[in-house]
Amino acid sequence: MRLAHATLSRKLSSSACINQSIKNVVVIGGGLMGSGIAQVAAQSGQNVTIVDLDRKVVEKAQNAINTSLQRVAKKLFKDDLAKADKFLTNSMSRLMLSTNPEEAVGQSDLVVEAIVEKLRIKQNLFKTLDTVAPTHTIFASNTSSLPIGEIAEATQRKDRFVGLHFFNPVPVMKLLEVIRIPETSDDTYNRVMDWGKSVGKQTVTCKDTPGFIVNRLLVPYMMESVRLLERGDATARDIDTAMKLGAGYPMGPFELLDYVGLDTSKFIIEGWAEKFPENPLFKPVPTLNRLVEEGKLGMKTGEGFYKYQKK
Ligand SMILES: CCCCCCCCCCCCCC(=O)CC(=O)SCCNC(=O)CCNC(=O)[C@H](O)C(C)(C)COP(=O)(O)OP(=O)(O)OC[C@H]1O[C@@H](n2cnc3c(N)ncnc32)[C@H](O)[C@@H]1OP(=O)(O)O
Ligand SMILES: NC(=O)C1=CN([C@@H]2O[C@H](COP(=O)(O)OP(=O)(O)OC[C@H]3O[C@@H](n4cnc5c(N)ncnc54)[C@H](O)[C@@H]3O)[C@@H](O)[C@H]2O)C=CC1
């Protein structure tokens, strides 16, 4: 009886929502990216549930979002503290926390996954959610490097599956890469393009190709930076300075690697080295593996290529 009731409520909720805009968003993964994605959705007026494995992680995400929103509010309403406070309070009031993904997606219109960059783990998550999410719910992955099609393989909703690739830090970086797979329906594509704009992003579209646009160009550059360092051609600091002053980048490659996380970077490279063993560009680099083995994941642990003041 419970199952029938659940199926019925899913169908009712799906038919009721089918033509509505995306209002209820669930973000799975409360780390660097998930917290940023949840923030931009909440501050844009949507109901957001952020889900992680551990209550402490979602509470940490909530605190990070609150801190970031204060920076955003100060910029948006610099001359009106009352409005800034209202913006902050309203945005935070739309944010719910959960450690139960199956329950969280029950009323969702869009699920954005931002969990660890491991294909099997992403597939297992979506396979489970596919059995409980409403029929109309769109699934999206924020993966940096994995094939959207291979993630979607785990579900029966390939027509409602896309890549939504945000950039770090999400509240600041304007770009959103939208990736269609051949099965993505026009309705799904149009709805996520509208949603991307509603959360303040400029969208570009890319086929389901490794690294999409930015990372396809960024990863080789980052790999070559580490090889330059490993050959002893220049120090990390000088390479960063050179790229900031010589190429106008806001961060050099080593600052950026520490910023995005050396664990995520390692997962990306390992995935591409496995998929493209013949491409020397993707050959894993000893320095990155050593740092990750030592637990030096970059800013998130206080040390990577550089050391950071504990906040
Ligand atoms: C070792 C070999 C392995 C290599 C292979 C693997 C490589 C993998 C690479 C890709 C990894 C995956 C990444 C991915 O998928 C896609 C990405 O995200 S790529 C990264 C994209 N992001 C960048 O390139 C960031 C570049 N940096 C910057 O833009 C700036 O440095 C930054 C905005 C981060 C900080 O700016 P800065 O001026 O230095 O500091 P401020 O603190 O003054 O901030 C400026 C401005 O922005 C506001 N702000 C900053 N952070 C936040 C925040 N979290 N929330 C809200 N607002 C924020 C701040 O308030 C300032 O606003 P003002 O108006 O200036 O007051
Ligand atoms: N770090 C970056 O600059 C960027 C990362 N990405 C992508 O976003 C995704 C997340 O990356 P980050 O936020 O940097 O990683 P992170 O390590 O900061 O956060 C990942 C979070 O997912 C949680 N998690 C892992 N398995 C889970 C599961 N089964 N269910 C629920 N939560 C789970 C972890 O507890 C962790 O809090 C990855 O796919 C990454 O490639 C995309 C753009 C930029």
TrEMBL record:
Domain 3-hydroxyacyl-CoA dehydrogenase NAD binding: 24-209
Domain 3-hydroxyacyl-CoA dehydrogenase C-terminal: 211-308
Entry EC no(s): 1.1.1.35
Subcellular location: Mitochondrion matrix
Organism: Daphnia pulex
Annotated site location: Important for catalytic activity: 165
GO biological process: cell differentiation; fatty acid beta-oxidation; spermatogenesis
Pathway: Lipid metabolism; fatty acid beta-oxidation
Signal peptide: none
Entry's Gene Ontology cellular component terms: mitochondrial matrix; mitochondrion
Sequence positions that bind CoA: 68, 75, 144
GO molecular function, one term: NAD+ binding
The protein's name in its UniProt record: Hydroxyacyl-coenzyme A dehydrogenase, mitochondrial
